[in-house]
Amino acid sequence: MRTEAGQTPPERSLVWRWVRFLLGVCLIALGVALSIRAGLGATPISTIPTVQAEVTPITVGTFLMAMNVFFVVLQVVLLRRRFPPFQFIQVPIAVVFGLMCDAALWATRWITPEHYAEQVWWTVASVLVIAVGVYIEVAARVAYLPGDGIVFTLHQVTRIRFGTVKQLFDWSLVVLAVALSYLLLGELFGVREGTALSALGVGAVVKVIERLHSRWLIRRRHG
Hints:
- This protein is mainly alpha-helical.
- The protein is built from 8 helices and no strands.
């Protein structure tokens, strides 16, 4: 069904955007699971939950839920009356993301790389999957994961460039995960070279995807 102007009705367009958003979140969750299964270090956002899950019977996804809900609370504290009420939708999104991560970890339980080359392969795969997921999630333009929401909030409050805040935020999580790992386990766990590859590689791949998509759209228009 289309309107008189030949456009997709707004309601249908919004539903489609939410479908795209959830697809992006699902891919990000899969990428997180792949990074953990690879064994070369979790993604920055999942480093702390990975350490916590190692020393408790609680799942990575559950800890991710709690951490992301905390990020929403932190946004409210920092923005106060400027916090858009609609952004409370990040709370159910945090729950869905956590459940998806646990589901993805269950679905990928068969991945047990025995050689370093296999670990590198799955780590690279996780970076690519997360990058595609991030691009789809952002392109949907309906909401964002709490981890991105807190970064945007810190950008608003500090006036520091978004990209810079994102890098500082990710590496802060990694540093906290390292400290927590030594405190709880007495050794480094969940943070390795794969963590650095994810922190640096996802953004770079997203830029490449964006560039390729833009070129494809231009060619399609001039078809």
